[in-house]
Amino acid sequence: MSTATRPTSANPKKILVLGATSGIAEATCRVWASEGASLFLVGRNPEKLAAVAGDLRTRGASFVDTQVADLDDASKHPELLAHAINSLTGMDIALLAHGVLGDQPRAEQDFHEAAQILLTNLLAPVSLLTWLANYCVQRRSGTLAVLSSVAGDRGRKSNYVYGSSKAGLSAFLGGLRNRVDREGVTVTNIRPGPVKTAMTASMKGSHKFADVDKVARTIAKAIDAKTDNLYVPFQWQPIMFVIRHIPERVFKKLNL
Ligand SMILES: NC(=O)c1ccc[n+]([C@@H]2O[C@H](COP(=O)([O-])OP(=O)(O)OC[C@H]3O[C@@H](n4cnc5c(N)ncnc54)[C@H](OP(=O)(O)O)[C@@H]3O)[C@@H](O)[C@H]2O)c1
Questions:
Q1: How buried is 205 (Cβ within 10 angstroms: 0-12 exposed, 13-18 middle, 19+ buried)?
Q2: Over the chain, what is the mean pLDDT?
Q3: Does residue 7 have a pLDDT over 50?
């Protein structure tokens, strides 16, 4: 599906957004649209994707094109990414935002649920990032910004399958950065704490979670600054430092 509008600003950032209907991605795109960016949006829900694209056009994006895709299907990634970059006539930034929380109690009983979480949150990003990193290395430029999670910093009983998908993703991003940074490519690992979006709407205490627009502004700034690792909101960095260092003999008895 192509719903492109033509570029208008002189030298806009060219940004590919995978999982563009995510609450965090959408809010970050609103920041970029207000700066006149060119955006290529990928999402699996055609109605939501069209609504997001329409909104970003009215907010000042100089170019918006879209593609409907289920990102679990890695066989389609090369064609999808080549098409997106062709449509944008290049790429400065890719934001990978798609993800699922999954059903932890079900995943404890049913391997298929665990496998689905790992497919969407880890295997699909590994496929997308492998292609995108090689594209950026060839051009010696580009930023790959990826939404991992504080949940990946230590496995907890309440969400260790989701957490392990994000731990794998964070380890992959660290290794990828170690490979491509010297080639002029930035890898930004974004670890949000709990944020108010559709993903967390049914969680206890979700009204106290971080505001998505504030989180988005911090993410956009960190990407501009070519930050390696971002905890957002910032207090999650010291919190996770403490959680990572709790001795296992104590940690295993906690209800986290
Ligand atoms: N919100 C938080 O508290 C929080 C904290 C830490 C990390 N994160 C991470 O931040 C990212 C964005 O989360 P969010 O809070 O913005 O959640 P969200 O609003 O629920 O967005 C998740 C997005 O992923 C899309 N998606 C899921 N599977 C997909 C697939 N196979 N193909 C294409 N799109 C797919 C969903 O599409 P549909 O709308 O079609 O389902 C949805 O747009 C996720 O990776 C999440 O793990 C979130």
A1: exposed
A2: 96
A3: no
Homologous superfamily in CATH for domain 14-251: NAD(P)-binding Rossmann-like Domain (3.40.50.720)
Cα 100 to middle of ligand 1, angstroms: 5
Q: Which of 18, 100, 218 to mutate to test the pocket of ligand 1 (most atoms within 8 A of CB)?
A: 100
Q: Please say whether the beta carbons of 41 and 53 come within 8 A.
A: yes
Calculate ∠ Cα 116-117-122, nearest 5°. Answer: 110
Q: What is the 3-state secondary structure of 134-166?
A: HHHHHHCCCEEEEECCHHHCCCCCCCHHHHHHH
Domain ranges for the chain:
14-251
Residues with CB under 6 A from ligand 1: 19, 21-24, 43-45, 48, 70-72, 97-100, 120, 147, 149, 192, 194-195, 197-200
Span 149-172, average pLDDT: 98
Cβ atoms of 32 and 15 closer than 8 Å: yes
Known catalytic residue at 162: yes
Q: Which of 1, 104, 197 to mutate to test the pocket of ligand 1 (most atoms within 8 A of CB)?
A: 197
